[in-house]
Design goal:
With 238 residues, the chain is mostly helical. It contains 8 helices and no strands. It has one domain (3-232). Bound molecules: zinc ion (ZN) (2 copies). One zinc ion (ZN) is lined by residues 84, 86, 90, 92.
């Protein structure tokens, strides 16, 4: 098994862990989730802007357009085609989200997790250290991602089995992303730029709004800690 697939498998495991956290309900874990969201947002932002973007531009001068395309693709699937979606634990009551809303949210997030896999494979395609950085960025938001989907499925009346099935599916799509990047030439060529746009969206438009909603000082500061640890992690990997 190659490195990208192995790391994607670990990331998929974190999706499942996030789902288990929610389905076995533990309100004490809520602040930990919030801190993880803030920290993950900062780390992802740094990886997208300081590691993925420069490499994508190096490979192809027109990569900036592809980055924008990746960003807009997530906006389309998570907010234009999906009636109700936000990252983090679902706290709205059932009246607001019906079963199909839960399924639509799952659909949007499946595209995103596919690109989590594309990002890992593309990172390792450039170098071990870029692959390692991208993996960390993906791994850090995988637990909140599992929480998001599992809690949306529960809140929309899709049941515990639906919730756990969904987080498993998130993991499967991450692995698919890795495998298809190895097979499909155009994905290999544009994968890094596309997934840089996706990563930017997840960090700045999915995770940061959750941090803003929280309004607590430790959670707000965790974003900076996430950014700072980017340099620490990079120094360790180089
Ligand atoms: Zn909601
Ligand atoms: Zn993800």
């Amino acid at each position: 098994m190659n490195a990208a697939l192995l790391y994607a498998l670990i990331a998929a495991g974190a999706n499942l862990a996030g789902g288990l956290v929610i389905t076995t309900a533990n309100p004490g874990g809520r602040i930990t989730q919030r801190l993880l969201i803030g920290f993950g947002a900062g780390f992802m932002l740094a990886v997208a802007l300081l590691a993925m973007l420069p490499h994508a531009m190096e490979q192809d001068a027109s990569a900036a357009v592809t980055v924008l395309l990746g960003y807009l693709l997530v906006h389309l699937t998570q907010h234009v085609l999906t009636p109700h979606f936000h990252f983090g634990e679902e706290t709205h009551h059932d009246a607001m989200i019906g079963r199909w809303v839960g399924l639509a949210a799952l659909g949007g997030l499946l595209l995103h997790t596919f690109f989590d896999g594309v990002a890992i494979a593309s990172g390792f395609g450039v170098s071990q250290s870029l692959g390692g950085l991208v993996f960390m960025a993906i791994f850090l938001h995988k637990i909140p991602e599992g929480v998001t989907v599992a809690s949306i499925m529960l809140a929309s009346g899709n049941g515990r089995r639906g919730a756990l099935g969904s987080v498993l599916l998130l993991g499967v799509f991450t692995l698919l992303g890795v495998m298809l990047t190895a097979q499909v030439a155009s994905l290999r060529h544009h994968g890094l730029a596309l997934s840089a746009g996706v990563t930017l969206y997840v960090a700045a438009s999915n995770l940061i709004p959750e941090v803003q909603r929280e309004g607590s000082w430790p959670v707000a500061t965790s974003v900076f800690l996430g950014v700072l640890s980017f340099w620490g992690t990079r120094a360790l990997l180089l």
